[in-house]
Amino acid sequence: MAVAAAQKRADSETAERILAEYGLSAVPRHVAIIMDGNGRWARARGMPRLAGHHAGRENVRRITMACADAGVEVLTIYAFSTENWRRPADEVWGLMSLLAEAIDREAADLNRNNVRIHHSGSLDGISAALAKSVQRAVDLTASNTRMVLNVAFNYGGRAEIARAVRRMLAQGVDPEGITEERIGEFLDTAGLPDPDLVIRTAGEMRLSNFLLWQAAYAEYYATPVCWPEFGREELYRAFADFGRRTRRFGGLV
Ligand code: FPP
Predict the structure, then answer these.
(1) In angstroms, what CA-CA distances link 59 with 9, 54, 105, 117?
(2) Mean pLDDT (10-residue bins), the chain, 253 residues
């Protein structure tokens, strides 16, 4: 208990220092990132695409800690989309291997850092070993409180909504009781706040089936920087930009 309190105090001191150092007026509660540009980053260096994904994976660790240090509550990363299955088999296989290694290797470290791992997406079609690793990591970190790392893996926003509808029907939910909040309870992100800030690296300007329901009122930030090079400074630049936005949620200020 005393350890948890000391950790919380240290966390808030770090967050305060970062806010002061980077002149941030606000840190988003939930940051969601489309980690694009691994392939381009690798090509520009004459390296195979998988080397880009490898560098991208290393960056996940940096950005996870940068978010935790700043006091972000939830970080969602788009690790593998339902559409990514269309890539050549060797790239799909390579991405799965990178993820499997990362989950087994990082879960203990994330656990030590009091980060809870959450999975959004489907484990259907995934190897039994990888599905087990994901579940093990989720179970191991279930009681952690510093930050949630929500890994969108084998995830697509439309597939998620279809899954939620199937679950509602299977549970016999009364049509009269279907509200926006009730739908949220059946999504993979149930219990998590909606994203405040969606960041996309590598310059594209699209949502690519990411958090379609949840990002309805998220602020959007695009940067030309490829994911492997999107570091702490870049992240806090995005937070600074977020802090200058006026969020109206459809109303007037
Ligand atoms: C997009 O870059 C990136 C992906 C499809 C995969 C992202 C996965 C990782 C960063 C590794 C995940 C690791 C963990 C631990 C979650 P792209 O290949 O589309 O790049 P390009 O548009 O330049 O070709």
Answers:
(1) 26, 9, 15, 17
(2) 67 87 92 98 98 97 96 97 96 95 93 97 95 96 98 98 98 96 98 98 97 97 98 96 88 79
209 flagged as catalytic: no
Beta strands across the sheet bearing 115-120: 115-120, 147-155, 74-81, 30-34, 197-200, 219-222
Instruction: From the candidates 11, 38, 59, 84, give the one annotated as an active-site residue.
Output: 84
- Spell out the domains of the chain, with CATH numbers in brackets: 28-154+194-220 (3.40.1180.10)
Q: Which atom of ligand 1 is nearest to the CA of 49?
A: 18
Q: How far apart are the first and last CA of the chain?
A: 43
